[in-house]
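W.,

You were right to be curious about this one. When I first looked at the sequence I had no strong expectations either way, so I just let the prediction run and decided to look at it fresh. Below is the sequence, 219 residues in total, followed by the output.
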Amino acid sequence: MQEEPKVQRFIPSEYIGNVDDYPEQPEFYFANHQPIRDALAAQKDIEWTLFNLGWLADYVVPEKNRYIRNIDDAHPVNFNDKTMIIPGAGDEPITFTTARDGARAIAHLFNAPAWEPVTYVSGEATTWNQVKDLLAKHGHQLRLSYRPTAELVDIVSNPTSHTADDVTAAQFGMWSASGSTRVPEEKAAAHKEKYFAGLRFQSLEEIISTTERDTETVI
């Protein structure tokens, strides 16, 4: 597998949720990510870890306050359309971590003498209904609706009957509705102590409040 002899450690592009229990979620990840996972597990030349952090928390602030681009209805919160479309019942567990905190964690990870096959970080464990209440508390007036899990399953199961964007949005929705967005909290806590001692990860309340105090700030 190793074509570059200088490479000794490798973090493939994962950045999702509970890959231990839900390796197939989100569905569009599986076809091109699982072969890489299998190839890494089958070799001994390169040390590697799958780094996962849940949803990027950056999406709960408007586009001007973050570096990452919009993904429109693939994310439940759409500030441009002033909508929030919650997948499932909204009480399913999810994890949020900011992109900046994820990057800081990865930088610390390279100082660790050894890695585990999967690494988890967690900025905040919550639900979409709690996110809805938090955004309302901070004055965001969004048109609220829910997409039942049965509807998401139907779209994902019948992709030729829907647009590609609808299928992708439904697959993202199933990622939340299945509970697989929530990283295993016990493992995340253990990894924080093992790899990220001294790092403090931001909560949703913190990043939203930061953009309220300075409307031009970028988190």
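Here's what jumped out at me. The CA atoms of residues 24 and 98 lie 23 Å apart. And, maybe more interesting for your project: Residues 27-41 form the longest helix (15 residues).

Coffee later to discuss?

I.
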